Structure formats: C-alpha cells, structure tokens
Amino acid sequence: MKRLRPAPLRLVAVGLAAACLALPGQGGAALAADFPSAVAEPDGYRMDAYRAPVPSSLSGGTVVDTAAAKSLHDRGIAFVDVLPRPPRPQNLPEGTIWHPKERTNIPGSLWLVDTGYGALAPVMEAYFMQGLAKATGGDKAAPVVIYCQRDCWMSWNAARRAIVAGYSAVHWYPDGTEGWAEAGLPLVTAEPEPRPDE
Questions:
Q1: What is the CB neighbour count within 10 angstroms for residue 148?
Q2: 136 near 26, Cβ under 8 Å?
Q3: pLDDT tens digits, 159-192
Q4: How far apart are CA 54 and CA 86, in angstroms?
Q5: Tens digits of per-residue pLDDT, 7-62?
Q6: Pair 174, 147: CB distance under 8 Å
Q7: In whole angstroms, what is the distance from residue 190 CA to residue 123 CA?
Q8: Given Cys at both, which of 24, 51, 66, 140 links 179, Cβ 3.0 to 4.6 Å?
Q9: DSSP character string of 152-178
Q10: pTM: predicted TM-score of the whole model, two decimal places
C-alpha cells in the first residue's frame, strides 16, 4: 500500500497554527496587541490615496470602536462627519438640475465636507475650525468624535488637524458609518454645513 505524503498546503497550515500557539498572549492565542500596526502614522497629514488602510492609532487622540462610539453618542458627545462631497459645478448651464449624492450618517452629526484632505485652502481650514467650535460650543476641552467611512484617511487627517488646533479630547472613529450600520445602529439622511464657496 502506498503511503500518502502530507500536501504542502497542509504542512503550511500546520506550521502557521504551531507558530500562532507559540506567540505571547492569553492562552497562547495571537492578540492584535502582539503585532505592530501594519500602517504607521505619517509625520504630517496623508496627502493622497485617501481610501486605503489607516493606522490603528492617533497621537494625541483616542481611537474608538463602535461600542465606545455608541457610548459617546448616548452621552450626547458631538460627532463630526468629514466625508467629502464635491460642490455644485459652477459652469452648469442655466436650468440644469444637479443632485449631489445622498449621504447618510450618524444621527446628530455635523457634516463638514472636504475638511479631511491633507492640505486645506485657508477658507476651508476656517470652515473646519468654525464647525469644530460650533460642535463643541467653543470649548477645546469638550469631547468630539470625528469620522467618515472605514479605511478613509479623511477622518484621520481631520482628527489630527483638530488635535493640532488645540482640541484635547478628540476621539477618532475609524470604522465610521460602515461600522455603525454593521452594528445595527441607525443612519439618517444628512445635509452638510454649507461650504464657504457655495
């Protein structure tokens, strides 16, 4: 009778399982904390490729998951959505009907469009700072949650920008509207704060 040799794929799986059991952590299971973040925080702001994996940290801020975001929301903490939306094209022929894409976000959020880019024009920087002041009642020590969508650097940039501006209780919710909806929490149709150029 011919003896069967283990398939190479099976050997790899067995080797990976053994490696995982050897890693530190509770009960030998590999924990996320045992591994460094796959994405490092940049020194400044992310300047391009905004829809990409994001860091698991935010220097000077607090990263929150959906349960923590829900708890903050239940306490009445301000939420700021920074998902971009292009303005109405200025050269549309007269009488043209223009419909921006509908956005649903976390109830009670202040939507500050286009404020998560790596570089902001002075007018958009002022728009963001005025919006943060509105959301926090002008108190830079008041907690604020900043988000957009999952794997979107816009919210990371905006949260960092708030920290640099002196906000001391910035919470960044990287799972954004996707994480909120996946938890069965409601989203509502939103309208942004008017942009300065609209």
A1: 30
A2: no
A3: 999 999 999 999 999 999 999 999 999 999 999 9
A4: 23
A5: 443 333 333 333 333 333 433 333 344 444 589 999 999 999 999 999 999 999 99
A6: yes
A7: 22
A8: 66
A9: BHHHHHHHHHHHHTT-S-EEE-TTHHH
A10: 0.78
